[in-house]
């Protein structure tokens, strides 16, 4: 992969800094993206317009030489941490090691992520390094990696394919369930959110994907967009299934939501589902390079408002109706730039975003429909291939 | 749960600071332990000897009121971020909000983790708050939570039980496999590391556990303790299986390793396995409250040295033999305090640690045996219940 770091170069030039430094583990997507390397224990990386360098433990050195996209791979032991510990004490070892590493790469001043370790920032300053953290959590590298290469799009497509198979496995459970006293039954037991979640997770593992969380939320649970759902699923209630797996090899995510009702839906459920699908289509019609995330969000707000539903964008205090944003970027992180919301920035070709309108009310339940798409110059390509049908017989 | 924060109180008193502040998401175990709350998006927490307070988004407020162990739960919107954005600009919103929150709790000076966000530390200082990050990554809260309560021990036991079932599923695959041209075959295909890993993951999911990584490493792969393993498994080669799941509900981990040979092991493999088990027993004999992690590690080094195997502790440059530490703490993190290694600190009753000696050489493969135990006043309780047998027929 060959990311385009022109925006990062411009940032460093504008702030008159030599490089951009990281100190974190593989959970830091900006670090992984910039260096092409991840490790379970923290390591240090620095980007300059001339080279990318990383500083790793001896245990990771061999793998780093093979896997990292870095021009320079240094071993921590080269900087004699044991001798430094004896001379300066344990508290100053890391700042001594890292400042010498930066000097080796010709770096005297660095930008960092907002979340760079404060202890190391203070320590490096003691050693004479200028450290200038970004002022907000979403930084310049986050913006760079929001625009996907063709290779990254393939990774998202692969994760989304697994996602669709997992959704099909979940829907099949609901379809095969019988109903007793209004509760879904499967293999002689009540069919629970937990059981459906397990089936989704097993389906994803079979396809090389992992996930920490899945939402299978029914009835009142579904009315809270952050509720993961629990307990028996009920016929005639909406069931929101929201799956966001990560492919373990590529580390890229997908994201999709569908809403089901076992048996016959009520008129209200059907209306909500139809207007939400209308909102989804209106948002998609607004997507193209040059449009803003705010405009796409507004398309959803307009549809809901015309249909008489409250939204947090028209009434900030509402607790029912459309109470979250329209969408977000997806990539190495399941939530990343750009934002499809108020103040959402301009979309660029290659942005991968979700479009996920929804309506919520504890008295009715919740309805959400979510597709994942890639922004193109004159519109979008929908990466989602799954039917949008409310009722499951 | 009712953790004992006396050591944290003493730290604050010693450094003359009002409180200990965090700003991170649920992946930060110190924050989760201190506040009893986790959320996928970053939130702020502050501990003082008088109260624990958290600052969360409106979306998390309801759940935080219910779930958090905090005395005070504040909503971000109470601090009028929109008005602050208009007045001070986006870059200063967070520092204004957080400094006002700290003032509400009566806090003017804070200790923080080493990894506290540097951007927020600088911002809070601009607002007149004293911010004093810890000088090393493993901090005072990490040490506090290393000592487990009875409730936490139950969580580890539960995760370890699932771990043993997953290991049994993996061993069963190896047992049921046939051998063709030296390669294990299962259901008409070569049995691969990936297939065994999948079986382990599915077994864990069925028991409410998750995991990001598993090691199923055969032959030369097994000679590298960090190699996850890949490709077909071979008869007559050592197969290291190292499983470290996290229970999704409790968030606590377990950790166990066994080494298998399909068919007949060589004399060298048998010797290595026997001396490694001897090292395991010697380390366990050394475990008790008041012993140091260094002493327990030395017990392993002594056994290997007496048997003529190199170790990194006797020869820092060796690339074969015993090339990692004896063990580590296990809890909310799979690797946490205390360290069972050089400079390993004094053990306390309630520490949960691994004992995992191993030998490695690309010419032979790798052998590792790992148990998880809890330190007691006069020894240890082994939380591991799984046979130690090399050969699988």
Automatic annotation (TrEMBL), chains A, B:
InterPro entries: Creatin/AminoP/Spt16_N, Creatinase/aminopeptidase-like, Creatinase_N, Pept_M24, Peptidase_M24B, Peptidase_M24B_aminopep-P_CS. Residues 72-91 are annotated as: Disordered. Pfam families: Creatinase_N, Peptidase_M24. Residues 7-127 form the Creatinase N-terminal domain. Residues 155-377 form the Peptidase M24 domain. PROSITE patterns: PROLINE_PEPTIDASE (PS00491). Keywords: Hydrolase, Metal-binding. It comes from the Archaea. GO terms for molecular function: hydrolase activity; metal ion binding. Belongs to the peptidase M24B family. This is Xaa-Pro peptidase family protein. It comes from Halorubellus litoreus.
